[in-house]
Amino acid sequence: MTTTKRSCWYVYLNEPSTENTWSMAVTIFLSLAIVLNILEVVLGSVAEYAVYMGHWVIAANYVFVAIFAVEYAMRLWTAADAPHAKDLSVRKKRWLYMRSSMGLIDLFSFLPLVLWAVLPHDTLGDFRILKLISMVRVLKLTRYSASLLMLARVYRENRNTLLAAGLVMMILMFIAATGIFIFERGAQPIAFGSIPACMWWAFVTLTTVGYGDITPITVGGKIFGAVVMVCGVGIAAMPAGIFASSFVQLVREQGHEQRRQRRVHSSSVVVENQGDEGQVIGTQHLDTSQSEQREVAYLIAEYGLTLEQALGVVMHYRR
Predict the structure, then answer these.
(1) What is the pLDDT of residues 237-251, one digit of tens each?
(2) Do residue 71 and residue 113 come from a single domain?
(3) Of the candidates 270, 259, 210, 273, which has an alpha carbon nearest to the alpha carbon of residue 236?
(4) Residues 121 and 56 in one domain
């Protein structure tokens, strides 16, 4: 009985579906709690609203901490029924959730404020800073958004490539900082007096942001800066290109999968129209083979033909 309840709660927490009332209720409740918490933090940063909110802020945060702590405990409990790790033990399944990215987000969405409430206030500092740390809970909304889940999948599938691009960026940034230090240290000892100080200029230039707060003034520094800018165009575009290509590919794959499912569904459906003509069409569809039914479903899904038209095409080539 416990396993059955645990399995049900795993579905409620991890598989939101409009066909499951309890799952939708849990999803809406948690999403609303996250949105209200974000709204409270945003309004609390405005001095006028913060005065009126007063001690209600502390009470509201205790409520949010309780909600997210219970959610974390429930997710940890139901992780034992995770279907993607059937071969692992219960303890390993729970540890897998605890060290996962979403598990860490769930933990830090309430842990800083719990520590603030338990430990002496002088130990952890400003309550407002801890609230901002707890704002990682906004990432919990990715569970309930197909678009955000798609972006997360793109990141997972291209993690090594993105890390390689980041490593190249760091190497070029070090080279750029060293080069501009050589050219500009004499002319601008304050802005370019050391390689660490030059890192800011190198990062801003390589990413093509170009704040313009510090700029080279020597001829050599300007020429070197132009080279860095040209290199930065390609380097900064690498992660964006990786994300864009992978995202388009993933969208296409999902589109193909949805069309395939529609074809399968259409091939298994027999339309029963009233009258003799509808009965004849239904009988013809029943007399077709499975491959012919798949062809009928394909013609309906891809070309928008009616069942009668699709059957007519298939019967024509049968003869």
Answers:
(1) 788 788 778 777 777
(2) yes
(3) 210
(4) yes
